[in-house]
Amino acid sequence: MALQRQLLKKALGEAKTKIGGSHFCHRPSLCCSFSTLPSSGADHEAALPLLPPFGYEPKPYNGPRGDEVFQKRKKFLGPSLFHYYQNPLNIVEGKMQYLFDENGRRYLDAFAGIVTVSCGHCHPEVLNAIMEQSKLLQHATTIYLHHAIADFAEALASKMPGNLKVVYFVNSGTEANELAMLMARLYSGSLDMISLRNAYHGGSSNTIGLTALNTWKYPIPQGDIHHVVNPDPYHGIFGSDAKSYVKDVQDHIDYGTSGKVAGFISETIQGVGGAVELAPGYLKLVYDIVRKAGGVCIADEVQTGFGRTGSHYWGFETQGVIPDIVTMAKGIGNGLPLGAVVTTPEIASVLAQKIQFNTFGGNPVCSAGGLAVLRVIDKEKRQVHCADVGSHLLGRLRDLQQRYESNYPLNSMSLEFSLL
Ligand SMILES: Cc1ncc(COP(=O)(O)O)c(C=O)c1O
């Protein structure tokens, strides 16, 4: 990833000096974080290429300035918050792929709101669905009937393969993984969970155990979690040899558990860990041995779902498997606080033994917005867009790779995934 970024930077720098000005960006979505202003006086800014024209004027901003917001945030919000840039941006408006700061300056949001904005900021159809529902009824829990949650669940289930037809709605990816782990443990009758090294599955007391990056882990009990060798085809100790990585999983089951496990969870492309794909064929082999050990297989699609790989709607499809439980968040809501767990009727039924309730899970506004997101992703062919932009950038990076004789692996799926 770091090298991909470096190469991209070099490409952009070279193209800038060769082509210059606004002609540089022949595709709006490829021009990240360049100035929209001709010059603000600083030399380095004057040398930056311009963003292509965009027929939208941000509203005049009269709110508090960045300095004031920053001071207030430091005083009243937790010290664990971090920010990007030495002088953090005060973002006050968003429109499709662009963000605007307090001075009306436009930025390409190549980060897509930390891989969350799947249709574009303030997409009109998503906004309209949210506003119309808000005017009628903002809040109702599942103790009453409301069509929005049922319609959304039906639409989401229609996107899933096999018998993955039952949906639980939650508010975030962490919560989705919490619920998935709970179901795996109840269904299997075992506690041991297996996750990959370098994984990120959330920061709550339980999911912090699944997460396997020390930068995100506090020294608290981590639960009964076994972190197996990461099947990273490029930097992993067994290269792309899926069978050797799977042997490590079997060893953990044989030597670190009773022989029975609750489940296995993995991202299909590790996101927080640096856009790392899994060795080809890995999930198929792992799912087999985990199921033999009585466990369920969970795909964390928080980052990879909703067409972001370009080639498939779900990341797990790239490995030719059907999980027993799929967790999702981020792109599902285009910015709404929304997450979901989809599983089979059999596994879902384990939560009927006790009261299972989530005040905001399936909230009518989030459900109406989420349904609109699904429709927009299809209508506007966002998955094809990801494939298109990813392939274009990959081609440019490959040119650079040849020119600079770099042998760093450039991988199409993770690039598309990282650049939506
Ligand atoms: C793969 C993955 N799973 C789970 C999460 C946690 O999601 P949330 O931040 O919505 O709790 C994240 C967040 O980045 C993630 O990338």
List the helices and strands and how they pair.
Layout lengths: L1 H17 L24 H4 L19 H11 L14 E5 L2 E4 L4 E3 L3 H4 L8 H13 L10 H11 L8 E5 L2 H16 L4 E4 L10 H4 L14 E4 L13 H15 L6 E5 L1 E2 L5 E2 L4 H11 L3 E5 L24 E4 L10 E5 L1 H4 L15 H16 L2 H22 L8 H8 L1
Parallel strand pairs: 5-6, 5-7, 7-10, 10-11
Antiparallel strand pairs: 1-2, 2-3, 4-12, 8-9, 11-12
Helix pairs in contact: 1-13, 5-12, 6-12, 9-10, 13-14
What is the CA–CA distance across the termini? 14 Å
CATH superfamily grouping of the largest domain = Type I PLP-dependent aspartate aminotransferase-like (Major domain)
Q: Choose one word for the global shape.
A: globular
In this structure, how is the largest beta sheet organized?
7 strands, mixed
| CATH architecture designation of the largest domain | 3-Layer(aba) Sandwich
Please indicate the count of domains.
2
Q: How much of the polypeptide forms β-strand, as a percent range?
A: 5-15%
Parts with pLDDT < 50 across at least 5 consecutive residues: 1-8, 10-40
Rg estimate, integer Å: 22 Å
Give the neighbour order of strands across the main sheet.
4-12-11-10-7-5-6
Number of helices: 14
Pattern of helices and strands: HHHEEEHHHEHEHEHEEEHEEEHHHH
Q: Look at the structure and give the CATH class of the largest domain.
A: Alpha Beta
Give a list of the ligands.
Answer: pyridoxal-5'-phosphate
